[in-house]
Amino acid sequence: MRITWKMSTSKIKLFTTAIMIISFYWFLSYILLEVWFGKVEEEEEDIIKVKVPIKMNVSLNYVVMHIDLKRTPLKLSYLETLLPMLKDNGVNSLLMEYEDMFPYEGKLVNLSAENCYKKLELKRFISTAIGSGFEIIPMVQTFGHMEYALKLSEFQHLRERPLNPDSICLRKPESMAFIRHLLEQVMDFHNAIRPLKHIHIGCDDLNHVNKCHNSSEKGCLEKTDIFLHHVKSLSDVIKSQYPDTIVLIWDDMLRGIKPDKLNYFDQSTNVQPVCWEYGVLPQISLANFFEYHEKFPHIWIASAFRGAEARTATFPELSSRYQNVFSWMNFILNHPKLKGVQKVYNFRGIILTGLSRHSHMDPPCELLPISIPSLLIHLIVIERFKSGVVIDGYNGFEEELLRNGRYVFINSKCVIDLERFDSSECKFDGQELYDLIKYFSRITLDLKEAFYDNERSLEYVEFYSQFDLINKNTLADNVNMLHKYLEEIGFFENKCASIMSKYYERDFVNEYINHKTLHLKKKIQRLLNIYKIYYNVSVWRRTPINNTYFVA
Ligand SMILES: *[C@@H]1O[C@H](CO)[C@@H](O)[C@H](O)[C@H]1NC(C)=O
Ligand SMILES: *[C@@H]1O[C@H](CO)[C@@H](O)[C@H](O)[C@H]1NC(C)=O
Ligand SMILES: *[C@@H]1O[C@H](CO)[C@@H](O)[C@H](O)[C@H]1NC(C)=O
Ligand SMILES: *[C@@H]1O[C@H](CO)[C@@H](O)[C@H](O)[C@H]1NC(C)=O
Ligand SMILES: *[C@@H]1O[C@H](CO)[C@@H](O)[C@H](O)[C@H]1NC(C)=O
């Protein structure tokens, strides 16, 4: 027994020692792993936050403002007044997305909206802009986002999918003829004023490629092949007619493409990709970038100063717009070093995208006049990176902006606090509209609460009315309050119509105001009608003996 006991004691000792040793190794390897992975994580996090203790500038020859006119007739007189401000802040090109606002002719005449620009006034504006030193880059959608044409009955048969007017079916020979026609009209119009250096042919968001041919056909081209083939044929067409015009395309269809596929483009290509990323922290693939650098003579980038939030957003979200452009600048300054490449890569230009609608069929989003502060932020950041920032760490520029824990941008006319933008501290054309729409946003918020309360009170009204137990005073209060809101909405509508008419043609002003107020007015009216029904119910009856109505 004793021996057994002794033996088991030594076994226990052995066991304990073993456990201690194992634990020690565990602990050691844990520490090592922690250090190792911690480092890896740090390195990954640092992908954008590289320290470069030298003075460097980003090279961006083109700072391009996107002017999106789709179903949104901005007054050219307003755009003209913007030019000096844009120039002062570093914009040197305008990307004109005319869509249905261009005065097409002949077979394409129905593509133009009824309130499209007249040839003469457009020509005058373009000449003025060129005279003030701007380069004009027209944009013509040539693959996706062709709703403005394919919605029409005469072009319906060119749809990739019968129910989707966004993408054109390239298998139909007629489609290519149609696109050539479209390009010709827009390019000839501009070339008559000044030969175009660049044309943007869109080609983004292609969701419905390769769907239009009949299902019994198999082994057809892949989506990327169709895309590349299309871009190649269009760029060849453009090259043959306008040999000096560079063709810009959005890059999203090139992302993640097999490198050898990019051999579609040789060094003499007239195509240059525009890498767009509108997120707070752009998800930029380094691999893609190095491929592009290899294949294309120049790369462009695009951030967004409006139209990158929700589909029906009212104001650009200033802090996310700032982060979007700041990350981009930081990325192009530092990305070659991430791969240990010493060469400094140039980027041709940056497009500041500003959508008026997410697509032709969508409701309007952030208006241009109230997005000027966001545009200014982009221009200040770009200017700082172009004129050389001392990059002693990631936050060099940011620290300069940071006041009381918030980012504040200051130029001679404007102070922009990202978190609490106060329009009274910033002089910009559009300020009055900004304030008015801000006021309306508050009404909308109040109304949301009121609707909630009213809907609850309606339940009571409906419930108590069966016992004729309605408190007419409460009812009257609610009715008065709703009438007051209707008045305020009416005030907003009138004022908004008068201010907006400085910037937009009447049809768009009406659309925008209705888009903002119609559903609210309908809701209020519905509530008022319900109240009206109960208003005449007689007052207070005796409480029923069994009180059932309290047990709702
Ligand atoms: C334009 O639309 C009108 C009305 O639908 C039609 O009568 C006309 O033929 C169309 N024009 C062309 C050039 O297709
Ligand atoms: C579909 O394609 C096949 C093979 O090309 C052809 O024989 C057939 O007629 C086509 N069907 C339709 C509806 O176009
Ligand atoms: C950066 O830009 C500034 C101002 O334009 C200029 O003085 C400086 O020489 C530039 N630095 C480099 C490295 O190009
Ligand atoms: C409520 O009563 C008034 C006066 O008796 C009457 O004029 C009105 O039409 C009634 N309204 C409804 C909705 O029944
Ligand atoms: C309570 O009283 C009401 C009205 O007198 C009557 O209709 C209902 O049936 C009664 N309920 C019960 C549970 O007694």
Reconstruct the topology from this structure.
Elements: H1 2-45, E1 55-56, E2 60-68, H2 76-88, E3 93-97, H3 119-131, E4 135-139, H4 147-150, E5 159-161, E6 164-168, H5 173-191, E7 198-200, H6 223-241, E8 246-250, E9 271-276, H7 286-295, E10 300-306, H8 318-338, E11 347-354, H9 372-386, E12 389-390, H10 396-401, E13 402-403, E14 406-411, E15 414-417, H11 431-465, H12 472-500, H13 506-535
Parallel strand pairs: 2-3, 2-11, 3-4, 7-8, 8-9, 9-10, 10-11
Antiparallel strand pairs: 1-12, 5-6, 13-14, 14-15
Bound molecules: 2-acetamido-2-deoxy-beta-D-glucopyranose (5 copies).
One 2-acetamido-2-deoxy-beta-D-glucopyranose (NAG) binds next to loops.
What do you see in this structure?
- It is a single chain.
- With 552 residues, the chain is α/β, with parallel strands linked by helices.
- It has three domains: 1-49; 62-427, TIM Barrel; 433-551.
- It contains 13 helices and 15 strands.
- The protein has an eight-stranded parallel beta sheet with strand order 4-3-2-11-10-9-8-7. A three-stranded antiparallel beta sheet has the order 13-14-15.
- Strand 9, helix 7 (286-295) and strand 10 (300-306) form a beta-alpha-beta unit.
- It is globular and about 80 Å long.
- It starts with a helix and ends in a 17-residue tail after the last helix.
- Mean pLDDT is 83; it is low at 1-7, 37-54, 538-542 and 544-552.
- The structure holds 2-acetamido-2-deoxy-beta-D-glucopyranose (NAG) (5 copies).
- One 2-acetamido-2-deoxy-beta-D-glucopyranose binds at residues 544, 546, 548.
